[in-house]
């Protein structure tokens, strides 16, 4: 490998990837549902990755992860998404973290647009708590796409927000200086 | 714990910002009318920038037309009209909307405020075409311009163009912006005399580089400061000495 110009200071990218066969752990939702997931899928969540690392560092056996702020229904969706993306190159997620024009792959588009808006927000909130960059990005983009070009009424309907009782104040104009 | 359904209103800030970043300015204007908490968030959303090239506002006796032209050369026309029974009609693109119990002027001013407040860096042109003497709108616009002007959060304005039959309106607006070029048109067909005494005291008058006055006679005695690189005026009567003076 020819050395690159500015690579002197840069450490070699050596993200420790678990190359062992699928390691399945139990994940428990806030309402007590117990699901199963591949650790590689769970590593997409920075929060869970840190917990898992904690166990591994201390050589404690990891039997069950508790996710206290996500209910079973939503957690199932999260795990489904993570399972689908567990083989993604982590560099892609990193590069997309602050990118503006995010392209939603067709599997994700289908997965997210079929959800009712309330479930989608639950999923985004869960992704936020669990710090899953890709899911936050795709979820937000899906919400934005569904709002684009809509009028205020259409947006109220879309987001299930009732019309406020009082009209916005109409006394903004001042006649004197 | 999940009885409070998650909705757009209670999304974390990071999520909200990501969603808003993906919407264009008109989507944000519609969205901010959805509810109070969303409006609060959007109004404090720093990345919001309409990226305007120019704004043209035409005020007629019962309607206001506003044209927002963006840097990518796209244009959006919004028309605000009054309807009987204290309601207003809004028209934009192919869409229409009737708002009960509202004043079309207030709605226009709120929309205009969002554009003006969020514009960054510079804008090429601000055009104002006023029929009659719509005081409420003039003072409304003035208040919005003043908020930016006094906070020093002003963007650079290339040209201010105003068409009016009432030149005493001009300083009210001009005193709250800082255009490089000033272009004034008389809306009446007949040329009239306009006393520049008041306006020529404004710093904005002194700071402008180009000046054009169409349809008004001005007093040749007026001191035209040296700042103007280019002037276009009509005098009612002018002495040869004054011509020589101006030629300098």
From TrEMBL, chain A:
In residue numbers, the region (Disordered) covers 1-21
Q: What SMART domains does this protein's entry cite?
A: Skp1
SUPFAM superfamilies (UniProt xref): POZ domain (SSF54695), Skp1 dimerisation domain-like (SSF81382)
Give the Gene Ontology MF terms in alphabetical order. cullin family protein binding
| Highest taxon, organism lineage | Eukaryota
- Keywords of this protein's UniProt record, alphabetized? Ubl conjugation pathway
Task: Tell me which residues make up the SKP1 component dimerisation domain.
Answer: 134-163
Entries under Gene3D superfamilies matching the protein: Potassium Channel Kv1.1, Chain A
CDD domains cross-referenced by the UniProt entry: BTB_POZ_SKP1
Give the UniProt record's GO annotations in the biological process aspect. Answer: protein ubiquitination; SCF-dependent proteasomal ubiquitin-dependent protein catabolic process
Per UniProt, residues of the SKP1 component POZ domain are: 24-86
Q: In which pathway does it act?
A: Protein modification; protein ubiquitination
Question: Which function does this protein serve?
Answer: Probable essential component of SCF (SKP1-CUL1-F-box protein) E3 ubiquitin-protein ligase complexes, which mediate the ubiquitination and subsequent proteasomal degradation of target proteins. Regulates cell proliferation during embryonic and larval development.
This one is known as Skp1-related protein
Q: Which organism is it from?
A: Caenorhabditis briggsae
TrEMBL record, chain B:
Question: Which is one Pfam family of this protein?
Answer: F-box
Please report the stretch or stretches of sequence annotated as the F-box domain: 5-55
Question: Which superkingdom does the taxonomy of this entry point to?
Answer: Eukaryota
Entry-linked PROSITE patterns: FBOX (PS50181)
**InterPro entries referenced in this protein's UniProt entry, alphabetically:** DUF38/FTH_CAE_spp, F-box-like_dom_sf, F-box_dom, FB224
Q: What is this protein called?
A: Protein CBG25008
């Amino acid at each position: 490998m020819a050395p690159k110009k500015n690579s002197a200071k840069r450490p070699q990218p050596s993200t420790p990837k678990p190359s062992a066969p699928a390691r399945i752990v139990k994940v428990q939702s806030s309402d007590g549902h117990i699901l199963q997931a591949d650790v590689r899928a769970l590593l997409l969540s920075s929060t869970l990755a840190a917990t898992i690392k904690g166990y591994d560092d201390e050589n404690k056996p990891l039997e069950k992860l508790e996710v206290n702020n996500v209910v079973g229904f939503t957690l199932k969706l999260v795990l489904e998404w993570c399972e689908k993306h567990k083989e993604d190159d982590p560099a892609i997620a990193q590069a997309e973290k602050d990118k503006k024009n995010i392209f939603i792959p067709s599997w994700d588009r289908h997965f997210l647009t079929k959800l009712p808006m309330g479930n989608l927000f639950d999923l985004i909130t869960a992704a936020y708590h669990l710090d899953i960059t890709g899911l936050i990005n795709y979820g937000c983009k899906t919400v934005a796409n569904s709002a684009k070009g809509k009028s205020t009424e259409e947006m109220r309907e879309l987001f299930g927000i009732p019309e406020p009782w009082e009209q916005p104040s109409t006394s903004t104009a001042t006649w004197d200086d | 714990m999940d009885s409070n359904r998650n909705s757009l209103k209670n999304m974390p800030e990071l999520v909200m910002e990501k969603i808003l970043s993906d919407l264009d300015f008109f989507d944000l204007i519609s969205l901010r009318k959805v509810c109070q908490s969303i409006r609060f968030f959007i109004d404090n959303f720093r990345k919001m920038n309409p990226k305007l090239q120019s704004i043209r506002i035409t005020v007629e006796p019962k309607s206001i037309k506003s044209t927002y032209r963006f840097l990518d050369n796209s244009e959006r026309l919004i028309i605000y009209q009054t309807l009987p029974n204290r309601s207003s009609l809004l028209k934009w693109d192919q869409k229409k909307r009737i708002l009960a119990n509202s004043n079309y002027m207030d709605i226009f001013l709120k929309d205009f405020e969002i554009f003006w407040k969020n514009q960054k860096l510079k804008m090429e042109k601000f055009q104002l075409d006023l029929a009659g003497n719509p005081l409420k709108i003039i003072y409304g616009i003035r208040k919005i311009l003043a908020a930016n002007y006094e906070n020093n959060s002003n963007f650079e304005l290339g040209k201010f163009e105003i068409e009016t039959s009432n030149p005493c309106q001009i300083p009210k607006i001009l005193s709250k912006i800082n255009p490089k070029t000033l272009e004034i048109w008389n809306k009446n067909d007949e040329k009239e005399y306009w006393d520049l005494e008041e306006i020529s005291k404004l710093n904005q008058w002194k700071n402008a580089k180009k000046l054009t006055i169409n349809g008004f006679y001005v007093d040749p005695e007026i001191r035209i400061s040296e700042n103007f690189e280019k002037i276009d005026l009509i005098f009612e009567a002018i002495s040869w000495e004054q011509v020589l003076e101006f030629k300098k």
